[in-house]
Specification:
This protein is an alpha/beta fold. The chain has three domains: 183 residues, Rossmann fold (3-Layer(aba) Sandwich), CATH 3.40.50; 54 residues, SH3 type barrels (Roll); 79 residues, Translation factors (Elongation Factor Tu (Ef-tu), domain 3, Beta Barrel), CATH 2.40.30. It is built from seven helices and 17 strands. A six-stranded antiparallel beta barrel has the order 12-15-14-13-16-17. Strands 3-2-1-4-7 form a five-stranded parallel beta sheet, sandwiched between helices. Strands 9-8-11-10 form a four-stranded mixed beta sheet, with no helix packed on it. Strand 16 and strand 17 form a beta hairpin. Helix 1 packs across helix 6 and helix 3 packs antiparallel against helix 4. The radius of gyration is 22 Å and the shape is globular.
Length: 357
Amino acid sequence: MDKKRVLVAMSGGVDSSAAVRLLQSQGYECAGATMRLYSNEDISISKSKTCCSLDDTTDAKLAALKLGVEHYVFNFSEEFSQKVIDHFVSSYLCGKTPNPCIECNKHLKFGSFLARARLLGFEYIATGHYAVRELDEKSGRWLLKRSPDINKDQSYVLYNMTQDELAHTLFPCGGLEKERIREIALENGLVNANKPDSQDICFIPDGDHAGFIEQRVGVQPSGDILLTDGSRLGTHRGLIRYTVGQRRGVGVSYSEPLFVVSKDVEKNTLILGTKDKLYSNSLTAKDCNFILFDKLDAPYRCKAQTRYHQTPADCTVSPLPDGRVLCEFDEPHRAVSRGQAVVFYDGDYVVGGGEIE
């Protein structure tokens, strides 16, 4: 019987490199491929230490050589610029707080990469994500679960995956702890065994997202900082520099701590309030995708997570017109931000998610 062929998305990091070895030990025939998403010049730096940079492509090639697998490089820079970077910039200009990893997963890793793998004759793709896929024999649906390594769990950024994508994607690292993944890399002599995890947005390695945006679209205008009661407190330095829930770096003094509550893009005003003003009883979300079932037809009890690493909150999610949903929290929920993802969980299983309106 022929071995099943897998194309592993090799970012140059330890997880995706160890994924190749794990798949080899399970009898799969592997090859690796690195997505070229940008050049260092594209993001105005001389050298990058983030995923998908030139350095990481070299690390991926060395790992592939050590593991004895063929290695490809796919140039997806134009699509990445349009689908991820442009979306990131326009979202911030609209007062949102986007998550570029979610857009990259949706359009590049499980869109273009899977399509290219199929053209090359691969049955599966694989990534180094910490998540678990599982087939429900009763319904025939592929399900997505949290990783047992809860500190590394990445199911939150995978909620957009379709049944077809889940059926043809493997997560070899998903059921293991990070420490074990590094051990596997060391045991196999991989040069990136001790490589640190990427912490920043890949195309903004210095973490200055406002500077990146202004470099592309120009300096953003200053405006009024208002208290929730309408009284003026000061002047902001451009709305893109602030995030809902932010306390430090706002630049105003008051008798008690103040937080960014909202941003009014039309009036170019930053709204601050006391801690109690940060809490919401509900949210609406658009562009929703469901994994546990095809469509949300009735109110569903579950838990909601509105940021990457956050304790999920008990809620009821109900269908609205046009594929939108209403999420009502049992207890007021802190710092809900437009543009972020809300992901719903039933135990460890991803129910689905959408973009917070």
